[in-house]
Design goal:
Structural class: mainly alpha
Number of domains: 1
Largest sheet: none
Helix content: over 70%
Radius of gyration: 16 Å
Order of helices and strands: HH
Number of helices: 2
Oligomer: single chain
Distance between the termini: 13 Å
Shape: elongated
Length: 71
């Protein structure tokens, strides 16, 4: 994937954000400030955001439509 896939990457970044924001809201609402909140935010990023990103990029890489964009 490269520069020719910018539109897809932009849209999936928005999808990833839509998945990630509610998780952040829950973490910040449930955990008190301090070390627990920092660990919770780090875990939310590592799990929710990275899983959403891996899913959206994996769906794109699974096919071959991204290869043909520059041709």
């Amino acid at each position: 994937m490269g520069a020719g896939d910018a539109r897809y990457l932009a849209w999936t970044s928005l999808v990833n954000l839509v998945v990630y924001l509610p998780v952040l809201w829950v973490v910040t609402a449930l955990l008190p400030s301090g070390t627990a909140a920092l660990l919770g935010l780090t875990a939310a990023f590592a799990v929710a955001f990275m899983l959403a990103r891996a899913t959206t990029l994996g769906l794109r890489a699974r096919g071959d439509s991204w290869v043909r964009l520059g041709v």
